[in-house]
Amino acid sequence: NSHIPVITIDGPTASGKGTVAARVADRLGYHLLDSGALYRLTALSAMRAGVALDDEQGVAALAQELPASFSNGDIFLAGEEVGALIRAEEVGNNASKIAAIPSVRQALYALQLGFRKAPGLVADGRDMGTVIFPNARLKVFLTASVEARAERRYKQLIGKGISANMEGLLADLQARDERDTHRTVAPLVPAEGAYILDTSDMTVDEAVEQVLHWHTLL
Ligand code: CDP
Ligand code: CDP
């Protein structure tokens, strides 16, 4: 299925990858892979099963058998809808810890390749363009200043009625950036040939239009 077009959208936390990827997939009628959700589901599984986050074999075994399914924007773990649950900052932070384990990344590899189906795929994460789909047709690296990203997360949380504190969010974001950028496996770096889009001063619509514009050039 290597002829099926893939658009990869990688970037740091709260850069807007998820939002932009979903909108681009919708506009093109493509499938969507939210790869971060797979790491979040694995983290949630470990938390629930009482498997320690540094138990590499234990966590990898959960990832290998991950009972994940996706349908119309809903995310299921063993049949239970957990879309809102896995968005919690605690799950995100734990996801970033288990994502540094090579055997966990290996366990999720084949599952991710399976999302490449006709007519095309938009995949968002950290290593979509570098490791999972190195032969993607279009690669985008979405970024924004850490302040802009913290503000976006803040608004997202407040919008959901969750209390948040800006300083705590900034610190969490910086810790996550640090872990994701400096780990030895699949670190967060722009893929070769990736278009870099700094969205600090852009709206979601503008970012979506830019990605669609690059897509038409290919
Ligand atoms: O939305 P946000 O960027 O905060 O997180 P996410 O994309 O849902 O990913 C959660 C965590 O999973 C990240 O902090 C990464 O450490 C990890 N991840 C990864 O390592 N590789 C991916 N392709 C996607 C996510
Ligand atoms: O997936 P990632 O963690 O990169 O970000 P997200 O979950 O898509 O969240 C980004 C938030 O910032 C959403 O609430 C967007 O509406 C907002 N936003 C954006 O994504 N892009 C902009 N250019 C401006 C705001």
TrEMBL record:
It is an enzyme of class 2 (transferase). GO terms for molecular function: kinase activity. Keywords: ATP-binding, Cytoplasm, Kinase, Nucleotide-binding, Transferase. It comes from the Bacteria. Its EC number is 2.7.4.25. InterPro entries: Cytidylate_kin, Cytidylate_kinase_dom, P-loop_NTPase. It is found in: Cytoplasm. Pfam families: Cytidylate_kin. It catalyses: dCMP + ATP = dCDP + ADP; CMP + ATP = CDP + ADP. ATP binds at G11, P12, T13, A14, S15, G16, K17, G18, T19. Residues 7-213 form the Cytidylate kinase domain. Belongs to the cytidylate kinase family. Type 1 subfamily. NCBIfam families: cmk. This is Cytidylate kinase. The lineage of its organism: Bacteria, Pseudomonadati, Pseudomonadota, Betaproteobacteria, Burkholderiales.
